[in-house]
Amino acid sequence: MVTSYGTCSKEKREALYRIIVDNKIEFTPYEELHTDLALLHKTSHEYIRRYYESVYFGENVSLTASNFSDCVFSCCTFNSCSISSDAFKDCKFYGCHFYEVKIIPADNQKNCNLIFSNCCGESELRKISCNEPVLSSTNTEIEYEKKVLEQYWRPGSDHADRRRLFSTLFKGYAQQDYEGISEAIDRLYGKEILLHKSNCIELNFEKMSEIREILGR
Question: Within this chain, do residues 92 and 116 fall inside the same structural domain, yes or no?
Fold first, then answer.
């Protein structure tokens, strides 16, 4: 019903939304966001530590200040929507596409610590909401690639795991290393050492010789 009402008049959409709220209908995180986007064309909740895959943020949708915190967006599409430059905080985007989005500068803009990997069209949002990262001078490109691969093949382990969620590739590292890790993921993806599979990133076992060389094993 929510989906079918998405193209109705504002009055009908808001009437259905009031029914949902008054009846305290419980939704999954995805259903909650979908209801907001379809009926209100904006977000009315705070979304904290959520994972969203293949969500479409379309025309007439407005994403305003501090809606999303510490969320992961995988293969989502942002098409002709309006995005406040502080709508996202500490969020990560993997394989997302941004088409003709309108970025609305926030008052007193702060660094939102956004991470983009294998995305398209995100440059304007990146530029206005992310300060230049401060990278450790001791970490080279190869060292960052090693950090990523060690999330699959831990030191001391006799085998590597095939799959990891995008967000787990950053665990255990400081915020200042996130940009270096994100760029390393992109390089490994380009070398086909990492493969994007649904909501996971897989280690390509056919590239084991290259993996061993980077890890020094």
Answer: yes
Q: Which of 12, 14, 16, 47 has the alpha carbon at shortest distance from 32?
A: 47
Per-residue pLDDT of the chain (217 residues; tens, 9 = 90+): 888 877 788 888 889 889 988 888 888 888 889 888 888 898 888 899 999 988 999 888 999 877 899 999 999 999 999 999 999 999 999 989 999 999 998 887 778 889 998 899 999 998 888 766 555 545 688 999 999 999 999 988 888 999 998 888 988 888 788 888 999 999 999 999 999 876 789 999 999 999 999 999 8
Closest CA to 110 of 133, 90, 131, 125: 131
Q: Which of 51, 46, 91, 98 is nearest to 74 (CA)?
A: 51
Alpha-carbon Rg for the chain, nearest whole angstrom, is 19
- In terms of residue numbers, what domain contains 9? 2-129
Query: One-letter amino acid identity for 178?
Result: Y
pTM over 0.85: no
| Residue 136 within a domain | no
**End of a domain among 129, 162, 196?**
129
- Tell me the DSSP string of 71-89: -EEES-EEES-EEETTSEE
| Cα distance between residue 131 and residue 129, in whole Å | 7
Overall domain count for the chain: 2
135 within domain boundaries: no
